Structure formats: C-alpha cells, structure tokens
Amino acid sequence: MLRGGLALGGALGLQACAPTATKVASASSRFGRPPLVPMRLTPDQIVDIKCCIRPFRAAGPNLSTEQIGDTLVVHNYGHGGSGWSLSWGSGEVAVTKAMSVLPKEIAVVGCGIIGLTAAVMAQRAGLKVTIYARETIQRTRSFRASGSYTPDSRVCLAEPAGPGFGDLWEQMARFSWKSFRTMLGVAGDPVVFHDSYGLSDTPPHRTEHPADPAITASYATTGRPQQQSEFGHYSDRLKDIVPGNIPLSAEENPFAAPYATRTSQMHFNFASYGQILLAEFFARGGRFEQRDFHAPAELAGLKEKVVIHSTGYAARDLWQDKTMIPVRGQTGWLAPQPDAAYSIHYKNGLAMSKSDGVCIMNFDTALGEMQGVGNSLEIPDRTETEAALAALAPLFASPAARA
Ligand SMILES: Cc1cc2nc3c(=O)[nH]c(=O)nc-3n(C[C@H](O)[C@H](O)[C@H](O)COP(=O)(O)OP(=O)(O)OC[C@H]3O[C@@H](n4cnc5c(N)ncnc54)[C@H](O)[C@@H]3O)c2cc1C
C-alpha cells in the first residue's frame, strides 16, 4: 500500500495537463524529469491473481518465549500486513532471545519471510540451522503479498498492543530498514526504490480515523476490531529516514487527475529476494526438512533444543492462538512493465510496477484497514482486480477521450 497517509478520493474534476497517447508527457520541470511511460492497465494483461490471509494478531507479533519440555521455543509470528517490512528487525529480536541460552544449533519452524530471514540471521550469528516447514518460501503466504515497506500496516490494535509496543515496533522497523538498504543495487534487484504517485480529484489531506461514537462494540467486547480507529499507527516515528510525500504542481502532474503527490517508496521483488535468501541459507550449510507439525509438543521432539516458531497465520491452529484474526487480501498481477517502473494510487485502485509484475490491489476506501477483517477465504476473485483496473484506467486517458 502506498505510504504517507494522504487521503485520495472525490469525483473526477478538471485535468491538470495533457497526456499524449503513447507517453504521459510531463511538462518540463526546471530539471527536466523524463516523461513517464503509461502503464497498460487492461484485464488482458492479467497473468495471476493471488489471495492470502494476513497473520494479524491483536497485540502485535508474538515474540515471547516458552519452555516445552526441554525445548526453548521463541515465537516469531503474527506480523499482519507488515511481515516483509519487519522481517529483519523481528528476526533480530527472536535470534537474540534464542542466543541467550548459548545454543550451537537451532531449529526454525516455518519458511515464510519471517522464518527464512530469522534462519539466515541465526547463521550469520554463527549457529547451525535446520528449517522444518510444510513449504519453502515460494509456496508460502508470504509470496502472495504485494511487497512494499509498510511496517505499520495492520500490525496490531493500539489498545491490546499497549503503550510499550511503539518502542519495540520502532526498533524492528529501523533495523529492517537498514538491513534492506544493504540489498539495494544487488544483482536481481531484490530491493528497489520507485516513485509512488497518490492521485485524487480533491486536494489531498492527511487521513485521520477518529473513533465513530455510534460504534459501541470493539475488540474488547467482541474479539475483533470493529472500526479503523482501533488499529495501531506508528509510521510518524520514522519520518527522519523514510521519504515523505510532496505535492506536485499542475505542470509536474502528468496524470488525468487534478491532484498528485509523489514519494519514493521501497519495494521487494519476491522472485529474486526469495532466491537470494534461500541461496544464502544453503550456502551457509543450512538444512531444510519438510515437516508438518500438528501440536506444540511435537517441537520438543526435534533434536535442536532451541526452536524459533514462525508459522504465521497457521499459529492460530497449531498454537491455538485465537488472538490471531484473519485479514484477507488479494493481489492481481499483470505481466511486468519494466519501462513503467512506478506506482499509482487513485480511488480504490493501486498499481505497483515491479520487476516481478505489476501488482494490482483494490481498496475499499470506506473500510480502510477493516477491509478483509474476519475473512479467511483464500479464493481469488477476478472481478475485484478488474474493478481496480477500471478505476485506474482514466488516469491515462488521451486528451480527446477526456474532452
Ligand atoms: C495482500 C497482502 C499484501 C501484503 N503486502 C505486504 C507488504 O507490502 N509489505 C509487508 O511487509 N507485508 C505485506 N503483507 C503481509 C505479509 O505477507 C505477512 O506478514 C508475511 O508474509 C507473514 O510471513 P510469515 O513467514 O509469518 O508467514 P507465512 O508466509 O505464512 O509462512 C509460514 C511458514 O510456516 C509453515 N507452516 C505453517 N504451518 C505449519 C505446520 N503446521 N507445520 C510445519 N510448517 C508450517 C509454512 O509452510 C510456511 O513455511 C501482505 C499480506 C497480504 C495478504
């Protein structure tokens, strides 16, 4: 999701400037930015639709420890819509706890972005690591995400997380940010920065979600969030390192929407990122064993006596953690468009062009973070993706079509 907290919406209004049919010609700014190549946002470009449950946990990720027989279990699951973004920082917390009993070898259960990252970090700290999991990263829910640095996206509910969570979150988010920066410019572009444009028909404004007094139910009374104001937001703590949104003048705005902001956003390309992490894991002597666990006691049967537990949303059943709440999300994928490497967000549509494809998401702007809450159906819905494409298409309309 585009970062920056600027609300977009309203009816289509006056156009700022005139795009051509082949290139969206930006009026020459003082330093002459090259014109943007328009995205091809038509349903015939769809190559895949993926559906996934965010492992949302009311109190935020579980990073606690517990003893099962003679085995120390360090939990590392429940990262909501922020798992990729917090993976390194969360791994740092988990590996530090695992190291506290001075093991020579550890097990990691789970090979999504959280488990695999923690496994590599443990190896870098000198430990021998075996990953036990049902699937390797390419088949996990992690590979069905969208892939941006969004460290406080549905990461917790403010009240159950408590006032201390902000500090832990900031520590994890900053650690991850630094770690991702070491992967910039690496062959295969696992991590990149692209321009992201927020487009609207009315002047952009900061999104606030005050509590609706008409809604009296809450997580405390129902076990599920009932409105957006219950979610925790912490991104203001990173203002000093994460690029902000700037408004564009009419001359700088090449899109057929009257208002535009631009920021520079970090993205992850899943295919190369996953391969690079797996390659490092095996190069450092890591072992992968395909296993399906059915109860916590089975972890105590492993030969490693320190286990990092990273099964994501599956912890709801495996660990009977009923504070995990499913939050359904869907990404549509268009064939890659490397000449149009930027992102746009307009009305309910988002298009994020990366080397692993153009990711399309459909946001219900009225529901916001409540979209998908309580929905555990992982069945793709093509109409949802097509509706997002339809919302975005007018941005590239020719002047004649818009007249
Ligand atoms: C639509 C969508 C978009 C998203 N976009 C972003 C984004 O832009 N940025 C971001 O930071 N986050 C994003 N997320 C969130 C992110 O995808 C998750 O937080 C993250 O993938 C969680 O990773 P994980 O490793 O904990 O879980 P998973 O990827 O689910 O991995 C769990 C692992 O545990 C294994 N496992 C599970 N149960 C068992 C068992 N019983 N026995 C053995 N092994 C088991 C699985 O095989 C797998 O290897 C998005 C999520 C969605 C749905």
TrEMBL record:
Enzyme Commission (EC) number: 1.4.3.3
Reaction catalysed by this enzyme: a D-alpha-amino acid + O2 + H2O = a 2-oxocarboxylate + H2O2 + NH4(+)
The UniProt record lists the keyword Flavoprotein: yes
InterPro entries membership: DAO, FAD-dep_OxRdtase
SUPFAM superfamilies to which the protein is assigned, alphabetical: Nucleotide-binding domain (SSF51971)
PROSITE patterns the UniProt entry points to: PROKAR_LIPOPROTEIN
Record flagged with keyword Cell cycle: no
Top-level class of the enzyme under EC nomenclature: oxidoreductase
Keyword annotations: FAD, Flavoprotein, Oxidoreductase
Ranges for domain FAD dependent oxidoreductase: 106-395
Names of required cofactors: FAD
Similarity remark: Belongs to the DAMOX/DASOX family.
Protein name: D-amino-acid oxidase
Species this protein is from: Sphingomonas vulcanisoli
Organism lineage string: Bacteria, Pseudomonadati, Pseudomonadota, Alphaproteobacteria, Sphingomonadales
